[in-house]
Amino acid sequence: MKQAWLELPERSNLFWLNTINWISLRVGRWLSCLLLYPITAYFVVFSYRTRTASRDFLRRVLGRDCGWAEVFKHYHTFACTLLDRLYIFAGQDQRLDIRIQGLEVLDSYARSGRGCLLVGAHLGSFEIVRAVGLLRSEYRIKALVYGEATPCITGLYRKLNPSLFKDIIYMGGVGSLVGLDEHAHQGGIIALLGDRSVHAGKRVRCEFFGEPAWFPEAPALLSRILDMPLVLFFCLHRGDGRYDVWFEHLADPPRVSRHEREAAVHDTMQSYANRLEHYCRLAPYNWFNFYDFWQSDE
Predict the structure, then answer these.
(1) Which of 232, 235, 254, 297 is 20 to 30 A distant from 217 in Cα terms?
(2) Is residue 85 part of a domain?
(3) Where does the pLDDT of residue 9 fall: very low under 50, low under 70, confident under 90, or very high at 90 and above?
């Protein structure tokens, strides 16, 4: 079954992306921020499917029905994170105020030579975590991604800093995971997102905001296969270029018998779903899965 998020077309316009890029890096952030308001309004008005998904999620996380103002804020928060990624990829992260908590968790695994699996989500700006980690430290990070959902936007970032894309591995291709075992055994860090499933046969149902939703098995399975602990990372947008980054230990690799593996995978991903829900409640407008996340089995 083709997952709902894979069916969403990219609505970005290359001309306007390049225009915003030029204004942001040469004129100033203030003008780019002003332009985000009419751009956001356009997408809110003309994106019925994603607007409906936004309203559904906000109703769950806020506990009330939401109107146009809340949906606009949701879209605008997403637009702000895309703008701020420009500064990260252009090496101008000094324009942003990034506060990090729990970095000692990541440091302990990196220094031990054991490495870890970093599991994030489409919550806030996961790219900021990856880019800042690569630019400011000696962490050896490989990022696993499912594909190019927004090729125009990704292409723009790639032009700004090609070096930040050399350690991206696209899952699903032949031999896509070759070398991961060696990277893990050398104490490397592997980053992936845990809130979108691709293959119907490789996902698990977990409770999320009081209802069942699909999550991928990949984080739990890789933890077992590579014998690496799972560490959560979230980077929440707090407005006006301010971000709060959290790292926290999630789970050790499951060491169970074959007949217990399915339950162990479910327990690990349920723990992930619980923490994701916690951080979504901390920053309700930061979750950017603009599709029907609670879709049925069909």
Answers:
(1) 235
(2) yes
(3) very low
